[in-house]
Specification:
This protein has 276 residues and is an all-alpha fold. It has one domain. The protein contains 13 helices and 2 strands, in the order H-E-E-H-H-H-H-H-H-H-H-H-H-H-H. Helix 6 crosses helix 7 and helix 12 packs across helix 13 (264-271). It is globular, with a radius of gyration of 18 Å. The model has no long low-confidence stretch (mean pLDDT 89). Keywords: Membrane, Transmembrane, Transmembrane helix. It comes from Caldicellulosiruptor kronotskyensis (strain DSM 18902 / VKM B-2412 / 2002).
Length: 276
């Protein structure tokens, strides 16, 4: 019972911190016309507020590290921050000249331009690989994790095209995974911290941005691998890898938004809580 009380207390503290940061940051950026981009409706709103969601996660992971001195939590916090910060760079300095893996590579080969998208393609796998190695995984397993984790990050980038969609997809995937795996108290708190952010994202007060969708994709990867603890020989890991890989490949040829809009059930879920 005491453990549950402490868990609730921690959540309320971090939830309060997140809400305060979201309100203050949104007000400041709008007042001084900073980091505003047009959303799909053409409305100008702060474009990279997902950095606050990831910051809440990072501080929570650091708190766990300082409490039990397990280096794993420090590694997860640092890697989470790096991956989110890489997304932040893309939010601030990125453009729409190229999209997808193929687009960024062709742009680099033809024009010699090293886009922020290509930076993300290179740096995210490196961060995940190094994190895996530090956590004493074998090289072959670390390479697999680097590929798998990067695909998860990219997949959630692809879903971040409408208000609230990215977090909805995370919740749906987690609900499906709950039939096959156990989520500990840390995972529950991290998931619960998406709720206050989700409300503002859904109401179009701000955008998640790559800073947030990167972090969400990485969090999803951590759930699947139990923070790098599972072996890559696990059937669940390989099943998830096939699905994530397949969706990434499909994204190069089809628009997820159009597929969602044409499907009655998916469109209903996508529109839940959104402005018409």
């Amino acid at each position: 019972m005491e453990g549950v009380k402490n868990l609730v207390k921690d959540y309320l503290i971090f939830c309060g911190f997140e809400i305060a940061m979201l309100i203050l940051s949104t007000f400041y950026l709008k007042k001084y016309n900073l980091l505003l981009k047009e959303n799909f409706r053409g409305k100008k709103i702060p474009c990279c507020m997902g950095i606050i969601l990831s910051l809440s996660w990072v501080i929570y992971l650091l708190q766990i590290f300082f409490h039990n001195s397990n280096a794993k939590w420090l590694v997860l916090a640092i890697s989470m921050w790096f991956i989110s910060f890489i997304g932040l760079l893309d939010d601030i300095f990125g453009d729409n000249k190229s999209k997808g893996f193929k687009g960024h590579v062709i742009r680099f080969i033809k024009d010699g331009e090293f886009s922020t998208g290509l930076l993300k393609m290179v740096s995210v796998p490196v961060v995940i690989f190094m994190s895996s190695v530090i956590l004493q995984k074998e090289i072959d397993e670390s390479v697999f994790y680097a590929i798998f984790g990067s695909l998860c990050v990219n997949l959630f980038n692809l879903f971040d095209l409408r208000p609230g969609r990215c977090i909805k997809v995370l919740w749906i995937f987690v609900m499906l995974l709950s039939f096959f795996m156990h989520f500990d108290s840390t995972a529950v708190v991290l998931l619960a911290l998406t709720i206050p952010f989700f409300i503002g994202d859904l109401r179009e007060f701000y955008m998640l941005g790559d800073a947030g969708s990167n972090a969400i994709g990485y969090l999803f990867f951590l759930f699947l691998t139990n923070s790098y603890s599972k072996t890559y020989n696990s059937p669940l890991i390989w099943a998830a890898f096939v699905v994530v890989f397949g969706l990434n490949v499909l994204s190069e040829h089809i628009s997820f938004s159009k597929v969602i809009e044409k499907n009655t059930l998916l469109n209903f879920i996508d529109m839940l809580g959104r402005k018409n």
